[in-house]
Amino acid sequence: MNTGIQDGYNLAWKIALAIRGKADAKLLETYNEERLENAKHLLKTTDRFFGFAAGTDWLMNFFRLHVLPPLAKHLFSLDAVRKFAFPLVSQIGINYRHGSLSNHAGDEDFEVKAGDRLPYFLVDGKSIYDRLQQAKFHFLVFSSEPNNFHVLKNELDGRYSELVDFNGFSISPEVQEIFGTNKDFSVLLRPDNHVGFISSDISSGSVQDYLTRFIGHSDGNDSPRR
Prior knowledge:
The protein folds into 2 domains: 2-90, no CATH class; 122-215, 3-Layer(aba) Sandwich (Glutaredoxin). By secondary structure, the protein is α+β, with helices and mostly antiparallel strands. The protein has helices spanning 2-19, 29-54, 58-75, 79-90, 150-160, 173-179, 204-215; strands at residues 122-123, 126-127, 137-143, 164-170, 185-189, 195-199. The longest helix has 26 residues, at 29-54. It is globular, with a radius of gyration of 21 Å. It is 46% helix and 12% strand. The chain has 7 helices and 6 strands, in the order H-H-H-H-E-E-E-H-E-H-E-E-H. Strand 3, helix 5 and strand 4 (164-170) form a beta-alpha-beta unit.
């Protein structure tokens, strides 16, 4: 189910932009690029699991019934195992670092890279994802003075109101640990909350450059490039 939901959302936001004339139709080609590798991996692991679960070999059957249950119970009681297993099972650990929609210019000094799914963390006691529910690109600014970006917000709202929203956040100790920096930086998230770019450049120009080069959106009021 997780795979189907992610497949659907990956394609949906791209189709929506193309239909609305906000992106080049070539954007649709990135669906196969990003999701096919995961589908192949899933088929391989599913086949292996089915062979293990349905196998009739007596030794495998003994291991499955008498050894694996207590072993799994012990392993999943360990925090390290749960932290490893949850992204794997939920598939939130999937990244598109090598995809053509990931702009790596500027992400060298960050722990999080273009193509990664935005890590989970709390903002004022609530999930960061509570602020990212609109089906848009999200331009996030992390700063020691997050309320000093009114001009930038107004500029983005005026030019890309249908395409991008703006959020400012403080650089908390948790943010510093996750991203690996205590300096101001920005992140542009795709509508599926994967990182388009992460950079120390905090400007509308960086957003415009990404939308033009990677999405095919030439201007807030113009049709996309062909």
